[in-house]
Amino acid sequence: MAYSDTKAESYSGASIWELFRGYVVLMKPRISALLLFTAYCAAIVAKGGFPDPVTSLALLLGLGLSSGGAAAINMWYDRDIDAIMERTQHRPLPDGLIPAKNALIYGIVLQVLSLFVFLTFLNPLSALLSFTGYIYYAVIYTMLLKRRTPQNIVIGGGAGAFPPLVGWAAITGQISLTSVLMFFVIFFWTPSHFWSLALYKNNDYKRAGVPMMPVVRGARTTKIQCVIYAVILGIVTIGCGLTNDLGIYYLIPSIIVSLWFLGVNIKLLNEPDHELKWAKKTFHASLVHLPIIFLAMVMNVLLENLL
Fold first, then answer.
1. Which residues, at least 6 apart from 249, have a Cβ–Cβ distance to it below 8 Å?
2. Pair 161, 293: CB distance under 8 Å
3. Alpha-carbon distance 66 to 69, whole Å?
4. What is the pTM of this model?
5. For a FRET experiment, which of 59, 162, 181, 291 has its CA 20 to 30 Å from that of 29?
6. What residue spans define the domains of the chain?
């Protein structure tokens, strides 16, 4: 970690724009955007339509601050291995743009602001759930699991699964069976998403000493488990359509997408372990799968209101 802390001193002359961009990158905006998307979709289902502007803004701002703060803590803690891995070595800390202590303070302040937004404009349960997701990612996954067990992604997947619970609670002040199933959709989606990435970034994780499943158990075991989780994911995803909150307009596309995603994972399983074409395709397919599923939930609500 001394590497990034020392190197940061050489960037004292960075422009305001470079620093602004660096602090935005610390929040992992692309990941945060997906979290906000799933939370807002859950809020729409809970409301049976679009929430009012104040509630919508408070939810997106509060959760954005929380997820961004957790990401900043993650980058602060992982700055040593980020400097080793090719895909992360140009992040703001290993690149020396932002001092480590600034990133830590930033991550904490963002979460404090998030709690203020939730408690002022929404309700205590949504604040508690958002804070739990923050702790889950920043502490449980990043500090306790990531470097210790190949099950880091499986157990840690709960961190990214909290937003639908937050979105639901923001509207209703409680959680429901549908919101819990949404949680598990993301939870069981996570292994195929991250392990397919880890398959073709395997050398990166080896160099950094991160015990991702392909590093510890090998490609074959990883691919088998991806298929298993894709099956469970399909069951949970389709199960959402059997609740009182979602119906036929969600159920049909959820079946189609679930079968397609399972097929992609089977293709990954059948690919020789030294080839990486389907590892990349599976990762990209996962980035399509989740948005389509949550969009289908929203479309179900809109079509039921229209027809």
1. 296, 299, 300, 303, 304
2. no
3. 5
4. 0.90
5. 181
6. 1-173, 176-307
